[in-house]
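Treating backbone geometry as a discrete language has practical consequences that deserve illustration. The amino acid sequence and the backbone structure tokens for this protein are reproduced below.
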Amino acid sequence: MPEAYIIDAVRTPIGRKKGSLAAVHPADLGAHPIRELVKRTGIDPSKVDDVVWGCTETIGGQAGDIGRTAWLVAGLPEEIPGVTVDRQCGSSQQAVHFAAQGVMSGTQDLVVAGGSQAMNQIPIMAAMIAGAQYGFDSPFHGSKGWVERYGMEEVNQIRSAEMIADKWGISRLGMEEFALASHQRAQAAWDNGWFDKEVAPFEGLARDETIRPTTSLEGLASLKPVNEGGIITAGVASQNCDAAAALLIAGEQAVKDHGLTPRARIHHLSVRAANPVWMLTGPIPATQYALKKAGMTISDIDLFECNEAFASVTMAWMKELDIPHEKVNVQGGAIALGHPIGATGARLMTTLLNALERTGGRYGLQTMCEGGGQANVTIIERL
């Protein structure tokens, strides 16, 4: 089977809630890493076959196929199409999968894959809220078939995170220690210049502004749980934010034809799913499935990125699969860096690629929980 290569990857800095990127139009946000990617790789943009872009809540400035709009706003050739993908939190990781599958099939040569999310302007669940205002049903409990299969159980991320903590015996203190490590790792990564290569300054912002270097266990312990009687607080959850990231995926012939130097190879890609009411447990069976399909074990993987939607999600995944924290999210995760939903998959891959190069690791595995109980897994090989 033909190979798919990562030629380069770049992202914006991450803007916090009500932060530096809050007023940036979603198309301008998405255009920035695309423009920078073309500049860095030196490719002729007219040779790109497609732009595959992740984004959720595609209303307002994110509507109308933002993958196509972001490319045009970047000032690039009109003849290049774009498509927008919604696999919830895994949207831009799935965009990379589609791009890789395109070049592996031989039907495409060069594809830009990535994603963006302007969460300050268009908050999470905005589409559901807008639909409700027009009298439309819930995507779950308004369906006769859904109720027959899953009943009227609440479908809620906070509830899922609480259930996971309870099932896997994860304490509030344990989650707070995990959250503190996320902030400390992210701050250390910036202090040591480890993010410099992957971030293209934008709108006067040169560094991620979501990290809280003064975070302490005492401060985390003072936060009230989101649900009465629960242990999930804002301090152990991912942050709403604004960001975009883009990767150039190329086939073998394109590498030769355009004189490109790949940084990594897509070694494996897959997606699996689990119970949609539990919602956030998908990375566990998805990782098991991916490793089996790839003929690999946990010990073969040098670094992991598992999205920190909530501390309990990543901690349960590590506990179930016996993955050491020393190999996971080594430059911090979404608790410190934020979870710009449509962009997170591409952001994680951009960071994983650079972390492998920095540490000299060979294989990196990326996964994340996604709405509907789904989880993508990508294994890349550093070249």
Residues 172-191 form the longest helix (20 residues). Strands lie at 4-11, 50-54, 82-85, 110-118, 242-251, 264-273, 303-306, 363-370, 374-382. The chain has a mean pLDDT of 96.
